[in-house]
Amino acid sequence: MTQPAENHAILLEDGPSLCLREGKAWKLNEVEIKGNEGHLIVTLDRKEGGEGLGGEHKVTIDRSTRIWRGRELLGLDELVAEGTWPSKGQQKFEAHPIQLALTWHPRYLYQQFHAADLWLDDAAMKDAAERQRQRHIRHIRLRWMPARVDAVEHGKFGHATVTATLFGSMAEPLYADFKPGIGGKMAAAENTLRTWWPDHDGMDGKIISVERSKTEPEFGSSGIQIQFEVPLILEGFRPGNTVRIRPHNWPNVKPPVEERVNGFEDRWPSPGIFEK
Length: 276
What we know:
Elements: H1 15-22, E1 26-34, E2 37-44, E3 55-62, E4 66-69, E5 72-74, H2 76-81, E6 89-103, E7 113-119, H3 122-143, E8 145-154, E9 160-167, H4 172-176, E10 183-189, H5 198-201, E11 203-212, E12 221-230, E13 242-247
Parallel strand pairs: 3-7, 4-7
Antiparallel strand pairs: 1-2, 1-6, 2-3, 4-5, 6-7, 8-9, 8-13, 9-12, 10-11, 10-13, 11-12
């Protein structure tokens, strides 16, 4: 079997993110240059059975490798020209801490990788993390906050109050936009987080309460529960279902077509749901 049975992930992170979360860094022990390419000898301490790559590895580099130092983007040639790395041959380093973004190598089956990005200091890593955080904030604001419906309180003539818990692991400024008394919009979504036409088939409403859990939330949950009042309940707003919600100050747009649920009619149940 070449593909795992699982097709959902509650946490998906790259190597640098894992290292930052665990307070770890790769140690650069040696650089060897041969013309326009070369390799690094690096090590990462990791307990037996721990998550992610560990131990000593030979990582290839070439002119495609992006090397970050402070707010500079450097190439292999520039580090050689300034004498930081040798023009040819080997140079030893005393376990200099770095961060690596590894990518595919033809000998990946033998635990060999290529360095797509290399961060030489903390300042470079902090700058990269902030840029990535801002990309994440933009992504969620345009596609709306995912949430799980906990309960629905039905009123008259389709009016309802939907109680939902926002997903976890989002940037705090996104959660801060959810405030009692402001307008917003809720759209049905699949458990893959894909929506249909949220700007058209979502339902405008009002956030009437925002409650933060006083205990540590379960992994994957923000612990932030909101109540959202809608004038007309939609089929997708059922307990256990996934929805996406936007406060009124987030853009009211549809996501790219390749990210949406395919087929306009897929939103509606067919007669096939009824048993014969």
